[in-house]
Amino acid sequence: MLKIIDRYIIKKYLITFFFMLGVIMILAMVFDLAERLGEFIEKEAPVRAIIFDYYLNFVVYFGNLFSPLIVFVAVIWFTAKMAQNTEIIPMLNSGRPFRRILRPYMIGATILMLISLALNHIVLPESNKVRLQFEEDYYRNIRTVADYFAEFPGKKVVYFDSYRSDKSRALGFVMENRNENNELVSILKANQAINPDSTDNWRLIDYHIRYIGNPHDKIVYPPNSGQHLDTILPFKLSEMAQRSTVVQTMGYNELKEFIELEKIKGSADIAFYEIEFYQRTSFPFATYVLTLIGMSVSSKKSRGGIGVNIAVGLFLAFIYIFAMKVTSVAAENVGFPSMIAVWIPNIIFAVLGLILYRMAPK
User: Fold this and answer.
1) pLDDT tens-place string over residues 320-338
2) How far apart are the first and last CA of the chain?
3) Does residue 90 have a cis bond before it (omega within 30 degrees)?
4) Measured between alpha carbons, how far is 128 from 133 in angstroms, rounded to an integer?
5) Across residues 213-224, what is the average pLDDT?
């Protein structure tokens, strides 16, 4: 059962967090609007779409993304003010152990952690679909891909020289077919491969097919020069030239299946996709770690005022961000396991938080 002290601290925790979140999101929207306004006007983006499709989902995405660090600053801010107002010392002098004061902090952290977890796994995939589609329609640059290579199910290996999203066309298209023994059976080449409606319907222009293996080794050309071939292929150009942010629109099971398919293709971005997958769970749990550290470093009254506590907290926050970046880069570039990479900062700072927590009552 929550006592008066629990309700008091939880109320301060949540009010401070949502106030800071609101201020930061308003500033972020103002700066983003100042940068994008010219493009919105040029492409005649509807006001309703700007507000509800873009900025509403913008707030949900970036608010959740920055929530652990906002939690950190919020905890330091209101705890340091409580310490400066000599509110914490009477709590300790009343005979309460330090862990009893920590309890409402952890309850507040649990509320925010559950909200973030629900956003990451349920709300954000659908929210991001709307936001990213708005970006594609009104200010994203044309997607281009060069020297693409991938292996698809059915023993098909595909590569092409270049692609532009505005034309839905790949140049220098080559598809190899292999049998169950991974032996090359045929090679299809086309100067242009067009997949306009992002389905399995393709049109191959200036093509020829080479069949490999005695006694059937031969090359088949179309009857007339420049003739095209309409065919069905088990993949889409949009799959080959999608932006990396596409993973933000996928739910848990969809993203898991997508990663397995990309592994089959031999994609170079597997680590990036896995980091997105694991961070959806690890990031919310950072709320506990940063709450513990923030409460521990700011619960002592400082002669320099709350500015000293905030400075120490921001320094630790920058170290935490740096650690996250280092482990992510290690996973993407040197093969460091992605799951370990996203959890290591939490583990290291959890240990640091426990040390600071033990020192705080002293």
Assistant:
1) 888 888 888 888 777 788 8
2) 29
3) no
4) 8
5) 72
Tokens of 86: 């000599």
**Separation of alpha carbons 13 and 2, rounded Å:** 15
- Tokens 């023993």, residue? 155
- Which sign, positive or negative, has the C-alpha torsion 198, 200, 205, 211? positive
* Residue type present at position 312: V
H helix intervals, the chain: 4-42, 47-48, 56-84, 88-93, 98-118, 124-138, 237-240, 252-265, 270-298, 306-333, 338-359
> How far does CA 12 lie from the centroid of its chain?
30
pTM flag (> 0.85): no
The structure tokens 């397995």 sit at: 260
Q: Which amino acid is residue 272, in one-letter code? A: F
DSSP assignment, residue 200? S
Pull the structure tokens for residue 297: 């470093």
Nearest-angstrom CA–CA distance, 121 and 130: 16
Query: Is 95 strand, coil or helix?
Result: coil
Residue 263's identity, in one-letter code, is K
